[in-house]
RNA sequence: GCGCGGUUAGCUCAGUGGUAGAGCAUUACCUUGACACGGUAGGGGUCGGAGGUUCGAAACCUCCACCGCGCACCA
């Protein structure tokens, strides 16, 4: 790493290392490996889709989990692929066809149209895959799958045939959710209820048998009146019960003769007599509830709406041919003309919308294929609900069924060499965490309730779609015969069902169909069930729940052990990202501008578990700034030269001192011990956060350690050594820096794969590692472990050094305050005098001097401060800034007085507590001691500040 | 109607019983020998409201308000 640029430039670095990883096959999973397995299947993005911020969030998390698992010594399979996304893709190609050739798919015919879709897929299918590569995703691309691959299609057909033979799949004429724009049936999950402003129309109808009696009916859909075949009242309703069995005259179509418009008044419990007028018009062909009433009363069905949402001839002359919404207005006019319109009042109700086309669903009777969901009881039972085995004790029995394939909650002390070199510290295979054997855990767990509720109330799944792009239903018909099978039946005259299957009917097989099922492949044996699934809660029913059922039905086991539900990415104002709003930044643009590492880090830092993420480009900027900081910290290390006494040349790699030296424990300064202890704490915090899927906590911990502890204090303190002349001490400090950096870079690797790989090699930390332990790539370097007691004992890493060094830094902070009080510019060098309370090492004196940016620090135990000299008091001694005349004494006095007020108020707070006998008697001893200590500390501060004030005179 | 989240600094959010935190923004000063994508120091909060439990509540309980989401749904 020669001639390091001042600012980190991600562009060249990122492409270089991604190519390297691919060439070296670093992402390829080996089913024969002896290592424990870790696996994830990607939620397959739409094959014609483009990367958006949701993908960034989701796939960064999967990449972090995968990379961490590799460093934990797992054999990792992250299996990628794409989804054919039936409606979305078909619509996209249809639009293009319309635009470029002014043709519809019907103009081309099915076969030709499908050729066009495949052509589109060939042309655009790689886009999102390449975008994922830009993001750094470590997927095993040799196993990339597409839901329309021949082998995958075979799985879908096989599953259909099996379920058909079991009687779980059946065909029937039922009311379905019909999208008039896409002209296909949809599942219940694809219908979105939206409140709509409209009108409640009241119109009156004459009772045929009692011409003086008129009933008033309330409806929001007067255009369906021609399809009414009864009116219903509640048999318990005293207003109307006596009319049951009589008839009313249906007002539309107006032109029909009266006797053709007589429809019965029926009694049905479904009618709520509190609502509306208590009289319900029944349209069995165009309303689900009405269909049920119609079935109960054997009512005839009159279809008045076409598949495209227009009215047909049965709706009557003026309405026929009109769109349903236009027809509504005309129907109102017709009723008004007849003088039967009583009133129309504004009304808001919920209307089901097609999620795809964003138009109101039309309930419609049609012949469709349905699935009775399989394996429901197992699927319900396997997901841990709240308060059920929630937090396993650290390191206890939480291992996943596949043995060691889970994740760590505790730390194994082994593998920590007492000999401290930069890249040492082998990571133990972590004991499992996550779900209990045979159980699955959702993160955050509250989604388990949502899942359970859905599973409790599911209806059969409408799986047929009136589309062309998708898996065609493997059923053939001839006259009255039906054949369901993997192959077309022999003989003449068979025609295949023209429908295709719901896309989710193929993606629910994803976790095992991608691994070679139904063959018992090595991949399946090694990697199924998968370890983690990372996805959005918006597809918990569509995909997650159905995968679980398929897992039990076809593999006899759950498909994954943990499901992490991400939040939804929103813009700064909290709005969902959408193309129409134009508030969705293009991740590729962000990567070009800031680097993929920056995008990943920024996203992770602002994405707490279970909360939606309000995306702000500032976050990415923060990520870039952080990478730059990391870069420059390493640059600083490089500029200090080799750790050995003599600079080693590149031809002498046997002299490991080029990169790092052994740490000599007797030469460790308090600052060294301080940073090593802080590193130890950071390793713990980051590891724990990752094991709990708390990615924002992990990044925050790393950020704090590296920026606020390592850079702000340790690096600055080190300059005391580097600016000195003690070469042995310099070498030792460099060895400590190398140790800390080589660990830190590894901790950052899952988050920042590119810059860490660059630094790992550039700093030379790779060179003394075995090839499969980080020598080739940091990807396989062992994840750092917290230090064990032997290690700490050997290097004298006692917690007292934390306190001691904190006190030193506190003194520095207070000393800097004096400059400000004196209005001394930051750049101006001044002389401080220090009156030590105990022995002060030359090293510490030098550190204090440097951190104070002082011209000099005179250490003088007998210093007689002139009146008016600003001072700070500390356990270590008194620090003076003797600048007579330059100090604004009054201002400093004001500051100190303010300080005194604050101290006194803190003292009285604690004293009050301690004076309360209830408190002192009931509180745990540790808390009591802590309060007493706090009081003592504040009192010492009070004394110090008082002295400072007096010294000012 | 049922259920789930949320309400803490100007903004975005951490903080599950013991001294209110971070990043951004902001103010002042500084291009000093890793970094201006930087440094140093500062200002800024009665933790949505009301009760309760407790020696002690931002945190636990009850109720309320507002924001968001999911499920169900009456024409």
Report on the structure:
The relative contact order is 0.10. The strands form ten sheets. The chain has a four-stranded antiparallel sheet. The model is unreliable at 388-433 and 645-659 (pLDDT under 50). The chain is 41% helix and 16% strand. The chain is of the alpha/beta class and 953 residues long. Strand 26, helix 24 (842-851) and strand 27 form a beta-alpha-beta unit. The protein is built from 27 helices and 29 strands. The chain binds one RNA strand of 75 nucleotides through strand 8, strand 12, helix 10, strand 25 and helix 17.
Features:
single chain, 953 residues, alpha/beta, Rossmann fold, Isoleucyl-tRNA Synthetase, domain 2, Isoleucyl-tRNA Synthetase, Domain 1, four-stranded antiparallel β-sheet, four-stranded mixed β-sheet, 41% helix, RNA-binding
Give the number of helices: 27
Oligomer state of the chains in this structure:
single chain
CATH architecture tag of the largest domain: 3-Layer(aba) Sandwich
CATH topology of the largest domain: Rossmann fold
On the 0 to 100 scale, the average pLDDT is 86
What gross morphology would you assign?
Answer: elongated
The helix fraction, in percent, is 40-55%
Uncertain regions spanning at least 5 consecutive residues: 388-433, 645-659
Secondary-structure content class: alpha/beta
Question: What topology does this entry show?
Answer:
Blueprint: H1 10-23, E1 37-41, H2 53-71, E2 75-79, E3 81-82, H3 86-101, H4 105-108, H5 110-135, E4 145-146, H6 150-165, E5 169-179, E6 184-186, E7 191-207, E8 210-219, E9 230-233, E10 247-249, E11 262-267, E12 279-282, H7 288-297, H8 324-338, E13 341-354, E14 362-371, H9 376-382, E15 441-443, H10 447-456, E16 461-462, E17 464-465, E18 475-478, E19 481-484, E20 495-496, E21 500-501, H11 504-507, H12 510-513, H13 522-527, E22 530-535, H14 540-555, E23 560-565, E24 569-570, H15 587-594, H16 596-605, E25 613-614, H17 617-639, H18 670-691, H19 695-722, H20 727-748, H21 753-762, H22 789-795, H23 800-821, E26 830-836, H24 842-851, E27 854-859, E28 871-874, E29 877-880, H25 889-915, H26 917-922, H27 925-952
Parallel strand pairs: 1-2, 3-4, 9-11, 15-23, 22-23, 24-25, 26-27
Antiparallel strand pairs: 5-6, 5-14, 7-8, 7-13, 9-12, 10-11, 14-16, 17-21, 18-19, 18-20, 26-29, 28-29
Helix pairs in contact: 1-21, 2-16, 15-16, 16-17, 17-19, 18-19, 18-20, 18-23, 19-20, 19-24, 20-21, 25-27
This protein binds one RNA strand of 75 nucleotides through strand 8, strand 12, helix 10, strand 25 and helix 17.
């Amino acid at each position: 790493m020669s001639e390091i640029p001042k600012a980190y430039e991600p562009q060249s670095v990122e492409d270089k290392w991604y190519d390297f990883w691919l060439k070296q096959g670093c992402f390829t999973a080996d089913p024969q490996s002896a290592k424990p397995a870790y696996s994830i299947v990607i939620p397959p993005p739409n094959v014609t889709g483009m990367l958006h911020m949701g993908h960034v969030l989701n796939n960064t998390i999967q990449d972090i989990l995968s990379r961490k698992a590799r460093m934990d010594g797992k054999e990792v399979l992250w299996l990628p692929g794409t989804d054919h996304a039936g409606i979305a893709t078909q619509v996209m190609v249809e639009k293009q066809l319309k635009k470029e050739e002014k043709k519809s798919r019907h103009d081309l015919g099915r076969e030709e149209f499908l050729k066009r879709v495949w052509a589109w897929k060939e042309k655009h299918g790689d886009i999102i895959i390449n975008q994922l590569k830009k993001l750094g995703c470590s997927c095993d691309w040799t196993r990339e799958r597409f839901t329309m691959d021949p082998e995958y299609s075979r799985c879908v057909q096989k599953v259909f045939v099996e379920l058909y033979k079991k009687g779980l799949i059946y065909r029937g004429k039922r009311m379905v959710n019909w999208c008039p724009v896409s002209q296909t049936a949809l599942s219940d999950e694809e219908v979105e209820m939206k409140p709509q402003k409209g009108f409640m129309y009241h119109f009156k109808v004459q009772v045929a048998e009692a011409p003086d009696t008129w009933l008033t009916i309330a409806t929001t859909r007067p255009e369906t009146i021609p399809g009414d075949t009864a009116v219903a009242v509640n048999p318990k309703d005293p207003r109307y019960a006596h009319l049951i069995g009589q008839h009313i005259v249906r007002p539309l179509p107006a032109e029909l003769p009266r006797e053709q418009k007589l429809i019965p008044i029926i009694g049905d419990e479904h009618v709520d007599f509190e609502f509306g007028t208590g009289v319900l018009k029944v349209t069995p062909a165009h309303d689900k509830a009405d269909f049920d009433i119609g079935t109960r009363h054997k009512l005839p069905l009159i279809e008045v709406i076409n598949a495209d949402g227009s009215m047909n001839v049965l709706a009557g002359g003026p309405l026929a041919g009109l769109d349903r919404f236009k027809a509504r207005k005309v129907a109102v006019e017709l009723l008004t003309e007849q003088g039967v319109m009583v009133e129309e009042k504004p009304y808001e109700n919920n209307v089901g919308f097609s999620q795809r086309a964003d138009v109101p669903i039309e309930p419609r009777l049609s012949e469709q294929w349905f699935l009775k969901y399989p394996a429901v009881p197992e699927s319900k039972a396997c997901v841990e609900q709240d308060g059920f085995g929630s937090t396993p004790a650290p390191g206890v029995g939480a291992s996943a069924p596949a043995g060691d394939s889970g994740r760590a909650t505790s730390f194994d002390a082994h593998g920590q060499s007492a000999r401290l070199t930069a890249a040492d510290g082998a990571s133990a295979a972590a004991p499992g965490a996550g779900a209990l054997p045979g159980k699955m855990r959702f993160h955050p767990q509250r989604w388990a309730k949502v899942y359970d509720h859905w599973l409790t109330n599911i209806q059969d799944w409408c799986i047929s779609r009136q589309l062309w792009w998708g898996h065609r239903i493997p059923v053939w018909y001839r006259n009255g015969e039906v054949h369901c099978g993997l192959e077309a039946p022999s003989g003449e005259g068979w025609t295949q069902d023209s429908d295709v299957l719901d896309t989710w009917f193929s993606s629910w097989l994803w976790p095992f169909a991608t691994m070679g099922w139904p063959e018992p492949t090595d991949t399946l044996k090694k990697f199924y069930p998968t370890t983690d699934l990372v996805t959005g809660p918006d597809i918990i029913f569509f995909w997650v729940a159905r995968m679980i059922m398929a897992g039990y039905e076809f593999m006899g086991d759950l498909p994954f052990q943990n499901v992490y539900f991400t939040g939804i990415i929103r813009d700064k104002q909290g709005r969902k990202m959408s193309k129409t709003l134009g508030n969705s930044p293009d991740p590729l643009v962000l990567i070009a501008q800031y680097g993929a590492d920056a995008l990943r880090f920024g996203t992770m830092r602002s994405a707490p578990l279970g909360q939606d993420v309000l995306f702000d480009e500032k976050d990415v900027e923060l990520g870039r700034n952080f990478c730059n900081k990391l870069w420059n910290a390493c640059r600083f290390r490089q500029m200090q030269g080799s750790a050995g006494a003599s600079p080693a040349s590149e031809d002498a790699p046997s002299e490991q001192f080029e990169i790092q030296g052994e740490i000599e424990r007797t030469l460790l300064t308090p600052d060294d011990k301080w940073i090593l202890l802080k590193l130890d704490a950071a390793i713990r915090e980051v590891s724990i956060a990752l094991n709990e899927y708390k990615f924002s906590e992990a990044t925050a911990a790393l950020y704090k350690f590296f920026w606020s502890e390592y850079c702000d204090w340790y690096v600055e303190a080190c300059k005391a050594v580097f600016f000195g002349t003690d070469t042995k001490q310099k070498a030792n400090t460099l060895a400590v820096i190398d140790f800390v950096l080589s660990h830190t870079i590894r901790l950052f690797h899952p988050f920042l794969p590119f810059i860490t790989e660059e630094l790992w090699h550039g700093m030379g930390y790779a060179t003394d590692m075995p090839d499969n332990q980080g020598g080739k790539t940091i990807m396989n370097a062992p994840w750092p472990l917290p230090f064990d007691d032997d290690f700490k004992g050997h290097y004298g890493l006692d917690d007292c050094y934390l306190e001691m060094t904190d006190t030193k830094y506190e003194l520095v902070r207070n000393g800097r305050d004096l400059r400000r009080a004196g209005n001394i510019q930051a750049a101006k060098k001044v002389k401080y005098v220090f009156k030590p309370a105990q022995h002060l090492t030359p090293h510490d004196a030098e550190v204090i001097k440097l951190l104070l940016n002082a011209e000099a620090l005179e250490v003088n135990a007998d210093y007689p401060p002139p009146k008016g000299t600003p001072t700070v008091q500390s356990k270590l001694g008194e620090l003076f800034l003797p600048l007579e005349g330059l100090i604004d004494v009054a201002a400093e006095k004001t500051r100190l007085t303010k300080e005194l007020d604050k101290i006194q108020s803190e003292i009285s707070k604690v004293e009050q507590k301690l004076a309360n006998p209830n408190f002192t008697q009931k509180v745990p001893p540790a808390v009591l001691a802590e309060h007493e200590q706090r009081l003592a500390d504040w009192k010492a501060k009070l004394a110090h500040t008082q002295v400072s004030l007096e010294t000012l005179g």
